[in-house]
Please model this.
Amino acid sequence: MPVPVFLLLLGVALLLQTTILEQVAVIGVKPDLVMLLTILNGFLLGTREGAFLGFAGGLIEDLLVGSYIGLNALSLMAAGYLAGAVGVRLNREHTSVAVGVTFISVMTGLIVYYLLSLFLGIYIPVFFALFRVALPTAFYTALLAPFFFKRLLCFIKVYGQEL
Amino acid sequence: MRWVTAKRLLFLVVLLTVTLAAMRITTPERTWSAPLEAKFRDILAPVQTGLTWIGRQTKQLVALPASLIGTAERNRALEQEVARLRSDIVRLNEYRLENQRLSLLLEYKQLMSHRFDFLAASVVARDPGNWFGMITLNRGIEDGVRSNMFVLTPEGLVGRVVTVADKTCEVLLITDPRSGIGALVQDVRTHGIVEGVTGGLGTVKMIHISNDAPVEKGQAVITSGLSSIYPKGVPIGEITDIQAESSGLFESATIRPYTDFNRLEEVLIVKTVLPEAVSSSEGG
Model:
């Protein structure tokens, strides 16, 4: 995916995430669109692109938040890389595979985020971190994957990126 | 006068007389009807009904092609009108709800004006993730906002300002895991610390509650005033659950905040705690 297009989509995702997504939060959890974007790109394009786009997207998110710069960058990088690593071994044109990879990658990204938070001295009880944040977020985000995956796949095919 | 002429004249007179009499007695205001007339009407009624129906249908059939001319245009215009009216209803409803919320804020502001100097603000953005609880408000340095001012709603405490820009500021919600507030169980006057768990969870924890304190579910928790940021007595929430801490020396409680953080739209930033409030806080 061309970087300007990715940045544009990232901007839209961040705007949605900080504003209206709060309205669709379920049990206090909203889907992570930035992570979804990163993971689907990583899944379709490979580890290098996944890690790069994840780091870039996370860094922009960190700059927007204005604190702990690098926290989102590293966790999204991990999620993007994992999605890319899994993607090369699986059928990358199948939506259900993309949904599964999204779920696992979001979980991984959020666990990395949690561990980095501990490193920063922010303590969140493990139970709440896993079962009230990571798991519901991964589930909710994975549910949205089918809506974006096919479009992204078409877009990437049109732009001639090899799968 | 010939006999034939006289007969005709008589017939005319009789006819006129009968007709005039009939006219007189059959006015619409009369309350009776002649048996023959009533019978006649009853017999004719079904026929009339059928004929009227046929007439109407025919009229419609004939008029249909003519009425179809411009129907599409009228339909489109009506659809647009309906859409516009629906949008108006939604907008007006939004104004009504906003008005209700602002009225509440204003009422609270007036009620508490002896205690706090308030500044009303709107929530313009939220933390993009699910871990932390931060909100961005549309007030900044230009409005006199400074770090560590605390934020509340008529329901209860919201958090404190952590960073300020010219036109906006960021507020750390009490649900954020990085937040800690000195608190007091109102009924039993037991101290503890209220901490956030995760931003989206909507509940907070009160830790380090003395083991022997008769803390119960449903009791209110307020700020203790033992900090430089929050004055004493600001409502935080209600105890919903009590657990023993792993050390065995203290208890902790789950608290449901009075403020609904998922529906936060307008808040009040406390710019100044007025001297009366300070002295009353110090006095307990």
About this structure: Chain A touches chain B at residues 14, 17-19, 22, 25, 27-30, 32, 34, 61, 64-66, 72, 113-114, 117, 122-125, 128-129, 132-133, 137 (CB under 8 Å). Chain A has a mean pLDDT of 86.
